[in-house]
Amino acid sequence: MADMQQAYEPGTHPDLPPPRSTVGVVGWLRQNLFSSPFNWAMTFFSIYVVYIIVPPILSWTLIDADWVGKTRDDCSRVGACWVFIGVWFKQLMYGRYPDTELWRINLAYVILGVSLTALLVPRFPWKHWVGVFLLFVFPIIAFYLFVGDAFGLPLVETPLWGGLFLTLVIAIVGIVASLPIGIVLALGRRSSMPVVRAICVCFIELWRGVPLITVLFMSSVMFPLFMPEGVNFDKLVRALVGVMLFSSAYMAEVVRGGLQAIPKGQYEGAQALGLSYWKMMALIIMPQALKLVIPGIVNTFIGLFKDTTLVLIIGLFDFLGMAQLSATNQNWLGFAVEGYVFVAFGFWIFCFSMSRYSQHLEKKLHTGH
């Protein structure tokens, strides 16, 4: 009897396991998909929509698709003809870059990939030096590798650049350059000096008030008309400058939103410590502001990456432009859909990767726990 009384005393008996219907796969389904009559209806409706849409897409892209061949005669036209992508793969990736010089682009990709991998490794000891290399040394190496005309490398003119290679060049240059320019513009717009504030406001509102396609058109067609006779800049350089300035205006507003979200006590505390304006911004304010606006910054980067397709209007054949050009070949008419699907999948991979990395940064820099 004493043993039975002890077994039922509070805190002496072991906890019972939760009901099986509330844990595991069954619990997740009950909580997320079948928690109410409305959720029951929406779940079955979603399953029906997936049943209608997904099987035909899988059949066209994978099951009935043609993968091996060299001509359009090797395609049955029942499913997707990925032979088209295989035949034009080099043009889609590198444009009209000479075949004998493709190793230069691939070498730059390897250097960039190894450096980024080193930055992503949590306990890599020389991250700061890798960052300095990527910001200051790698652009110089990439320039001479891509352009040539030095160190025994033959010149490859920018009209021969194209495909995914050109898309990455425009996107990376625009992304890397727009962030520091946007930070300076955001600080200038919040400056107490009227002249500086007015200049930054005019710059931001001017570039935000016109579409990117107009900026590219002006840089390509109108800008050379204002230059002295015999003075001209490469078309790609003009496009890069236009994209960089356009994106920096939007980046400035994103950063300004982060600066306004910082409590006034942070400014007063930094001033009480005797910090100068630039030390206060670099050490106290800006790190907090940039952490708050990581989603907005990455969203701007993703939008810029997708907007690189607009360079087609000025005669630069990027990833999408090269797919369209390949589909106009008289031997491959009617295969534009495969090119668009391939390009869309490529853009999705890069944009999704940037989105996931931004979420990783948010969790890593989160200090609210």
Notes on the protein architecture:
With 369 residues, the protein is mostly helical. Among the domains are: 99-156, no CATH class; 165-224 and 233-317, MetI-like (MetI-like fold), CATH 1.10.3720. The chain contains 16 helices and no strands. The chain has helices spanning 2-7, 24-32, 37-63, 83-87, 89-94, 102-120, 127-147, 163-189, 194-208, 212-222, 235-261, 264-272, 277-292, 294-307, 319-327, 336-365. Helix 10 runs antiparallel to helix 11, helix 11 packs across helix 13 and helix 15 packs antiparallel against helix 16. The protein is globular. The chain starts with a helix and ends with a helix. The model has no long low-confidence stretch (mean pLDDT 88).
Question: Which architecture name of the domain at 165-224 and 233-317 does CATH use?
Answer: Orthogonal Bundle
- Tally of contiguous helical segments: 16
- The pLDDT mean sits at 88
Estimate the global geometry from the Cα principal axes: globular
Instruction: Write down the oligomeric state.
Output: single chain
Largest sheet: none
Order of helices and strands: HHHHHHHHHHHHHHHH
Structural class by secondary-structure content:
mainly alpha
Q: Could you name the CATH homologous superfamily of the domain at 165-224 and 233-317?
A: MetI-like
Proportion in β-strands: under 5%
**Cα-atom Rg, whole angstroms?**
28 Å
Tell me how many strands there are.
0
Helical coverage, percent range = 55-70%
The level 1 CATH classification of the domain at 165-224 and 233-317 is Mainly Alpha
Low-confidence stretches: none
The termini sit apart by 49 Å
Task: Kindly report the CATH topology of the domain at 165-224 and 233-317.
Answer: MetI-like fold
